[in-house]
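Query structure, 145 tokens:
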């Protein structure tokens, strides 16, 4: 029995060190990628809200021929956004007819206050937090890709 124990070999310090280094390298690539994924998924709530507000504006314009007199408050009421979305995001519309729809995160938003997602009507494209702006995990600042 002692002989079997002598022949069994454990991991050497070098083997453990190699595994730790490999795990650290993988984490260096995986963590920023995961954080971007989280930001992208969190921005979808704002994108969905903006789509609903845009639809409300489109219906109003088709019905009345203009967006004159149609406020963001009326659009939010017509779009029937959930309480959670309204708690996390403040919506605004720029222009008449609308040129830009903006959602800005509130202090209740899990990633913090002041994150912006916007839809540019002329480009027909979303921009901002989690879309083309990412938080740099090293500095906490924003990067653009």
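Result returned for the query:
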């Amino acid at each position: 029995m002692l002989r079997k124990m002598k022949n069994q070999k454990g991991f050497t310090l070098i083997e453990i060190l190699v595994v730790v280094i490999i795990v650290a390298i993988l984490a260096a690539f995986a963590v920023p990628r995961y954080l971007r994924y989280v930001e992208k998924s969190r921005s979808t709530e704002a994108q969905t809200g903006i789509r609903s507000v845009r639809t409300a504006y489109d219906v109003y314009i088709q019905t009345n021929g203009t967006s004159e007199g149609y406020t963001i408050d009326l659009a939010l009421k017509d779009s029937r956004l959930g309480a959670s979305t309204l708690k996390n995001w403040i919506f605004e519309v720029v222009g008449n007819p609308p040129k830009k729809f903006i959602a800005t995160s509130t202090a209740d938003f899990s990633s913090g206050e002041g994150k912006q997602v916007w839809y540019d009507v002329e480009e027909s494209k979303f921009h901002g937090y989690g879309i083309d702006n990412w938080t740099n995990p090293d500095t906490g600042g924003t990067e653009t890709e």
